[in-house]
Amino acid sequence: MDFCATKTNRIMKQNEGLANKRVVVLGGSVGIGFATAKAAAEAGAKVVVVSSNQQRINHAVQQIGANAEGHVADLGDEQQTKQLLEMLGNFDHLVFTAGENIKTGALQNMSLDDARQFFNLRYWGAVAAVKYGAPHINKGGSIVLTSGGSGRRPGKGWFLGASICAAMEGFTRAMAVELAPLRVNLVCPGLVRTNLWDSMPETDRENIYSAFSKLLPVQRIGEPEDIAQAYLYLMQQGYSTGEVVIVDGGGMLA
Predict the structure, then answer these.
(1) Mean pLDDT across the stretch 199-210?
(2) pLDDT at 200 over 90
């Protein structure tokens, strides 16, 4: 047997791309999730877009085209997540990008009940997705989760976001060990121009974008399409698991 040829064939099979793969994007109707779903479909994948908003799902599916289908589910509700993933059956990759509008503030000014609620979708929603999604992932598939730069470099008033992001990194590493050989990775975006900032007045939002872009080595704010490429990379990179891929325009250096 030609060992080199066998090894090469195995690697080529791992890296055959997303053509005809089934990719489930939880939180895929807007922002980074939508950009990831669209990019995966353009790479030949059959995409399942999931969101709590039917109107946004309809728009996303229309924009993506024939390779997309959409389903409504409240991803902060464990039973809805379980029922959805059981209904979908087997697939190849699970992506979790769901999240509500960003909330900041000092610890002393925030209700702990409100803080706990913020974890419900971003952390516990991801936990439920992995718990009920992993048994349906085909051999060679993967899970890609989401955190954010505040977990590594929090600013004032970012204790809540930093806590969730750090928790997601620990969860990812633990699942990479527990679910092996299923691969589990995580994307850590920096500041990105998405709907998650829509709760902030437009003038304030644009001022933040402008000020922060001047600090970044790349001299611009990230777009959802920039971050989507990291999800596609991790889905296709068959030798990566337990990894955190930071895509922040050099924000950790600023």
Answers:
(1) 82
(2) no
